[in-house]
Amino acid sequence: MIKSASEIRSAARATLRGHWAEGALFTLIYWFISSTFSRICVMQVIWLGAGFLASSLLLPLGWGFCIIFLLNHRGVEDSFNIGHLFDGYKDFKRIFPALFVKELYVILWALLGAIVYFVILWFVLRYDVACISSPNPSCVWEGDGGDWVIVLIPALISAFVKSLSYSMTPFILYDKKEMGTKAIDLSMKMMKGHKMELFILYLTFIGWGILCVFTLGIGYFWLVPYINTSLAGFYEEVKADYEQSACDSGAYQKQPNED
Fold it and tell me: Residue 102, SS3?
């Protein structure tokens, strides 16, 4: 049993006490670097696939940004160090492939959800309801193009569910430095039975997100550290729960943290 969403958020606020300004500053730095690099990729790269690959080079930067809040949550001294933001590039051969495969899996699950639903929509609903009693065999469903937008729904659902399963991957990559893409599998095991709890945790930030809109987006520089620290706290909870449940089988061997 892990802590509730309110308890995790409370612990996150306590962890950020005295560090809100640093969290907002690092969020601004991360946003500036990533948005600038993305714009350059859009302007310089014509082929969409190449643009995606170029933007993927930001994945280690996002990893470093995520780990900063994990270190702060653990009380590591000088966790808000600009050098930590680029730690992912120091171990690029391990961090980048794992994060790239993680994002690729989410995209493929989204495509699978869309394809499955499209096939069902085509074969089951291709005959208009009004044609059921019609003797004309050529009478087919003639919905407008907007009807096909609902294909996005199963795509988004499947992608979101899998993203929840893979969400602990960045933290595992930090704690288990011998792991690469296998961190994705361990994340799935850790998140078994906890995906709904993470979903609920995300839902609790919706109100804050709406309020940030009225600050012209400035509030997001404080909301992002709040969310990331809460996610780090959630990881600590599911990791402890997984270690407890797997200690007898030896499926997960706890190792000392290497700061």
Answer: helix
Q: pLDDT (tens digit, 9 = 90+) per residue, 68-106?
A: 999 999 998 889 999 999 999 999 999 999 999 999 998
How far apart, in whole angstroms, are the C-alpha atoms of residue 210 and residue 232?
23
Backbone φ, ψ for residue 250 (5° rounding): 75, 25
Mean pLDDT of 114-136: 58
Separation between Cα atoms, residue 233 and residue 229, nearest integer Å: 6
What is the value of pTM for the model shown? 0.81
Contacts of 136 (CB under 8 A, 6+ apart): none
Query: What CA–CA distance (Å, rounded) separates 221 from 208?
Result: 12
3-state secondary structure of 216: coil
* Residues with Cβ within 8 Å of residue 198, at least 6 apart in sequence: 164, 167, 191, 234
Q: How far is CA 202 from the centre of its chain?
A: 11
| CA within 13 Å, CB half, 23 | 27
Q: What are phi and psi of 126, to 5 degrees?
A: -70, -20
